[in-house]
Amino acid sequence: MAQAAIELIGINKSFGAVRANRDINLEIARGTIHGIVGENGAGKSTLMSILYGFYQADSGEIRVGGKPASIKTPNDAIALGIGMVHQHFMLVDNFSVLENIILGAETDALLKSSIAKARSELDRLEREYGLEVDPDAIIEELPVGLQQRVEILKALYRGAEILILDEPTGVLTPAEADHLFRILRQLKEQGKTVVLITHKLREIMAITDTVSVMRQGTMVATRETKKTTVEELAELMVGRRVLLRVEKGEAEAGGVKLAVKNLTVKDSRGVTMVDDISFDIRAGEIVGIAGVAGNGQSELLEAISGIRRAVSGSVMLDGKPIDLTGAADPGELRDRGLAHVPEDRHHVGLVLAFEENENSILGYHDDPRYLKGPFLDIDAITADARDKIEKYDIRPANPHLKTANFSGGNQQKIVLAREIEQDPGVLIVGQPTRGVDVGAIEFIHKRLIAMRDQGKAVLVVSVELDEIRSLSDRILVMFAGRIVGERGPDASEGELGLLMAGVEQEAAA
Amino acid sequence: MDLLNAVVQVLDSTIRLSVPLLLACLAGLYSERAGIFDIGLEGKMLVGAFAGAAAASVFHSAFLGLGMAILISVAFAMVHGFASITHRGNQIVSGVAINFIAAGSTIILGQAWFQQGGRTPALQSGERFESITADTISNFLANYSFSSADLLASIRGLVLYLPALLFDALARIPGFGPVFSELLLGHSILVYFAFAMVPFTWWVLYRTRFGLRLRAVGENPAAVDTAGISVAWLRYRALICTGVLTGVAGAYLSMVQTSGFVKDMTAGKGYIALAALIFAKWKPVNAMFACLLFGFLDAASIRLQGSPLPVVGKVSAQFMQALPYVLTVILLAGFIGKAIPPRAGGVPYVKER
Fold first, then answer.
1. Which of A385, A427, B22, B229 has its C-alpha lying 20 to 30 A from B221's C-alpha?
2. Which of A73, A88, A111 comes nearest B212 by C-beta?
3. CA separation (Å) from B97 to A349, B76, B241, B246, B345?
4. Interchain CB contact of A44 with B (< 8 Å)
5. pTM of the entire predicted model
């Protein structure tokens, strides 16, 4: 094997009492694509931030190209030829591509020569790697795929030999992700080293040469990608066997529970986000809405759950209309059997500063079960919360812990437990497993299928295509505010991907 | 001719009244573009005014006064930076605190040092900035000679020679000349400085590395940080610019517009400048027009006090005094559309975990 591009030796890092990285050893070979997988909070991003000089390791040694390196700031990392593409792009949205590229890498105090140099350099990079992008475009007007390309160009412009990508495909369509992978392969052919951090095992299998698995701050294994399987990696990540695709029987769809007709919704700027959408959900089926984030799914969910005003159209719950003026009483909707697990649990689903037991009845706090006269019955609420904690395996099992101290997966379980345990007729779920670990995903999927088998109507909106395909009995694909196609659960990923990208729009219509 | 005279006079005082607003507004632009809200413009102007007048009257030098005004104002800006950048405090609270400290300390120190009820002694000629008039220019032209004995002064003079010649020629044009002398001449050097700062600020923001980074740090400090640039140092430098400009604004109030410091003499100009900054959508050239507009409203209200208006007749002085503020509210509420502030404004930068 060629000389190592990067060696990490005995890296330790703690944040307060949390040990994010424990005694990590890692060797990344030059000219390879090296994947790092692990659940959220396994310490992947922390490790890479140490390598990029964003944090300092408490102890341990970093060697770049065989030589010990001291990386105290991102500047040191850049000087050593390390570039990073962050999960949340580090771009200034209202700057042009050129301005973003030169930021921090200007040649002198005036911009003129920097801009000229960047322009010719971009031209060269474009020819060499096929990374074309309009240098004068404003970032916020570019699609995310191109924004990411600007991030890669930024790193290459600074002379990066080692490129770290943190969860690069989270925001991309399948087609954009494929394009990214082509670019990464080309970079590898040119002798660059690529480090890919992800929790999507399929990507690891598709593109990496070597893969390292992290769990709870430690490096548990490094494998040659060819000699491992998705199942083995998942087991290493979680520490036990995981079902990646939940078993489910045929749906036995009953009568229509929720009917959406000609629904049109605009956002705060007056842009039409949901454009004349109609569909039904029947009892005993899961309908999945697939689509790239930002194609109107959020607005659709908000309109159906009565939070956002609809411009026109109707939504019938059990044959009776839902108030779409934006002034719907959420309590009334709950009474009528409509439960909503919002996409954004931090802002809409939970009050993070509350204790777990308070969140586990939030919205149902007027229920006589939780009341003693005009007062909250704390004992009953706590008992109820303990019940849910046990049933949904929420950890830590402490109903008096502040909700902010639970992990993302456990917070999601708190919301799901609250809504599902009210036994609603219709359950609407936005991004059921966003930021949730592999192990918890399995659990949540099982719960949703159990709901279906009890004869409930379930609507799932997710940007994770795997999730949609594994859960849904019927798949609707949203693109630019419209439903551009309906497919069965056996639809191929490629077919759905094209619909999501709006390619087959004519064929589907 | 009477009407023309009146118009020229109102425009002339528009310029005079908009200068402190413009300086403060540009000062706010530097800090807010860097992502630091600065409600303490008012306080920094006030300490600048006090320090300027006090130093000028003690040391008998206008330029020493100006220097002291800038120094003290920058020091206050650094306090704001220490609280809101280094310690990530709330920027509004820090700004308000600076305003209170400024209002209180200037009166206390003024009384302790000069015993004139919080005022500073009236500035004499030479202790304040004089106006540059047509006479100043013709004197300068008449007395100017190139001498190798005093080379430095001669070269300095040479730089001023051509503009002076041009001004002199313009002032002599029949008909237009008097209007010109009234509007463009007869101001102190600080007035020209203020208006020169407009294109200069534009140039700094859009044509220099510092400006690019300044704008970036106000929009997305994380992008600046990951590019290997210190967010804190960049923001401190922006606040130094703010301090310099509020210092000049303060000096203008106490050393040009009046001759000496009077308590609370900023009278809300710092807040009007903030309003103008929003009105201008944080852009330098817009800022100039916004400040001229506010200055004009002020000038018009002074001019129209007590004089009868067509149709409505005589209007009370209080109404005219309130007019600029009423119009400010209307303009801000209705006419500017959506003003989008720098995205990272008001938020202390913390590295994410």
1. B22
2. A111
3. 37, 11, 20, 17, 19
4. no
5. 0.78
Residues A187 and A316 in one domain: no
Q: Within a domain: residue B5?
A: no
Q: Would you give the distance in Å from CA A340 to the centre of its chain?
A: 19
Contact state of B226 with A86 under an 8 Å Cβ cutoff: yes
Q: Are the C-beta atoms of B275 and B328 separated by less than 8 Å?
A: yes
Using one digit for the tens of pLDDT, what is the confidence trace for A142-182? 888 889 999 999 999 999 999 999 988 877 777 788 889 99
Question: Which chain A positions have a beta carbon within 8 Å of B205's beta carbon?
Answer: none
Dump strand ranges (E) for chain B.
Answer: 131-132, 187-188
What's the domain count of chain B? 2
On whether both B77 and B113 belong to a single domain, the answer is yes
Q: Position of tokens 């206050």? A: B76
Q: Among partner residues B206, B222, B351, which is closest to A90 by beta-carbon distance?
A: B222
Q: What is the ipTM of this complex?
A: 0.85
Residue among B209, B216, B226 whose CB faces A110 most closely: B209
Spatial contact of A421 and A359, defined as CB atoms under 8 Å apart: no
DSSP state of A386: H
For residue B229, list chain A residues with Cβ-Cβ distance below 8 A: 103-104
Report percent pLDDT > 90 for chain B.
Answer: 53
Tell me, rounded to whole angstroms, the distance of Cα A456 from its chain centroid: 27
User: Residue A509: its pLDDT value, please?
Assistant: 41
Q: How far is B212 from chain A (nearest CA, A)?
A: 7
Run of H or E including A340: strand A338-341
* Count of structural domains within chain A: 3
Which residues have CB under 8 Å from A264's CB, separation 6+? A272, A274, A275, A276, A277, A310, A311, A312, A313
